[in-house]
C-alpha cells in the first residue's frame, strides 16, 4: 500500500474513533486569526474534538490574489474546520455562505507576534504574505505587518459584534483553552491538557 494511502487510512480511522467518542461535528468552525497567533494549537485541539481541519495551503502557482479564495472554495468541502492563512481572510464570505458557523479570533501580543513571524519566516519571500500584508517578508516591515494584524482584528470584532453565540476571541498565551473552545462549540471538555504547539522552544 502506498505511503499516502496508509496515512489517509490511518487518519480516517482516527477521525472515526474521535467522532464515536465526541459525536459528529455540528457547525463549521473558522479560525479567523492570522498565523503565529496559536493557530497550530487550535488546529490540533479541533482535531481532538473530531473535526477535519484544513490548514494553510500553497499559492505559489496562483497569479492573482483573488485566486486564493477560489482555491479555498475548492478545498472547503474536504474539511469542517479551518485555520491559518488564507482561510482567515474570508470570514465575511464564509459567514454569509454557511449560516450557523462558529468563528474564533486567535490573538497574541502584537510585538511578540511580529518577533515570532521574523524568527519563523525571516527574509524568505512569500507571495501569500505579499498579498496579505502588502510586503512579502516581515523583517524590515514591522509597521506594515503589525498594522495589518491590528486592522484585521478590528474588522473581525466589528463584524461579529453582539454575536457571542457565534464568536470568541482566543489567546492561548493567556491561558485560553478547552473551557472557552468547548463552550462555543458545545463539546465535552477533554481530560488531556490543551495543546500548545509550534512554539519557538519546540522548534529550537
| Oligomeric nature of the chains | single chain
Order of helices and strands: HEHEHEHEHHHEHH
Low confidence ranges = 1-5, 199-204
The computed structural class is alpha/beta
The helix count comes to 9
Strand content: 5-15%
* Major sheet size, sense and barrel closure: 5 strands, parallel
Helix fraction by DSSP (H/I, runs of at least 4): 40-55%
What strand order characterises the main sheet? 2-3-1-4-5
The CATH homologous superfamily of the domain at 27-112 and 160-203 is named P-loop containing nucleotide triphosphate hydrolases
Q: Which architecture of the domain at 27-112 and 160-203 does the CATH hierarchy give at level 2?
A: 3-Layer(aba) Sandwich
CATH topology (fold) name of the domain at 27-112 and 160-203: Rossmann fold
Q: What is the number of E strands?
A: 5
Tell me the radius of gyration.
17 Å
Nearest-integer average pLDDT: 89
What does the overall shape look like?
A: globular
SSE blueprint:
Elements: H1 3-22, E1 29-31, H2 39-48, E2 53-54, H3 66-75, E3 81-82, H4 91-97, E4 102-106, H5 110-121, H6 127-133, H7 142-159, E5 167-170, H8 178-185, H9 200-203
Parallel strand pairs: 1-3, 1-4, 2-3, 4-5
Written overview of the protein:
This protein is an alpha/beta fold and about 200 residues long. It has a domain at about 25-110 and about 160-204: Rossmann fold. Helices cover about 45% and strands about 10% of the residues. It is built from nine helices and five strands. The protein has helices at about 5-20, 40-50, 65-75, 90-95, 110-120, 125-135, 140-160, 180-185, 200-204, and strands at about 30, 55, 80, 100-105, 165-170. The chain has a five-stranded parallel beta sheet, with helices on both faces. Helix 3 (about 65-75) links the parallel strand 2 and strand 3 (about 80). The chain is globular. It starts with a helix and ends with a helix.
Amino acid at each position: 500500500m502506498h505511503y499516502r494511502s496508509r496515512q489517509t487510512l490511518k487518519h480516517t480511522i482516527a477521525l472515526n474513533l474521535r467522532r464515536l467518542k465526541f459525536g459528529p461535528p455540528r457547525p463549521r468552525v473558522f479560525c479567523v486569526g492570522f498565523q503565529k497567533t496559536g493557530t497550530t494549537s487550535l488546529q490540533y485541539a479541533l482535531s481532538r474534538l473530531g473535526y477535519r481541519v484544513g490548514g494553510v495551503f500553497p499559492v505559489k502557482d496562483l497569479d492573482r490574489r483573488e485566486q486564493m479564495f477560489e482555491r479555498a472554495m475548492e478545498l472547503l468541502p474536504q474539511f469542517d474546520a479551518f485555520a491559518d492563512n488564507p482561510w482567515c481572510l474570508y470570514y465575511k464570505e464564509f459567514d454569509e455562505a454557511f449560516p450557523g458557523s462558529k468563528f474564533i479570533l486567535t490573538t497574541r501580543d502584537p510585538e511578540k507576534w511580529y518577533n515570532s513571524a521574523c524568527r519563523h519566516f525571516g527574509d524568505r519571500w512569500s507571495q501569500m504574505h505579499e498579498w496579505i500584508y502588502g510586503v512579502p517578508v516581515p523583517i524590515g516591515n514591522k509597521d506594515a505587518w503589525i498594522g495589518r494584524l491590528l486592522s484585521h482584528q478590528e474588522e473581525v470584532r466589528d463584524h461579529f459584534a453582539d454575536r457571542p453565540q457565534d464568536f470568541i476571541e482566543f489567546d492561548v498565551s493567556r491561558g485560553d483553552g478547552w473551557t472557552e473552545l468547548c463552550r462555543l462549540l458545545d463539546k465535552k471538555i477533554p481530560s488531556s491538557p490543551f495543546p500548545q504547539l509550534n512554539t519557538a522552544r519546540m522548534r529550537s
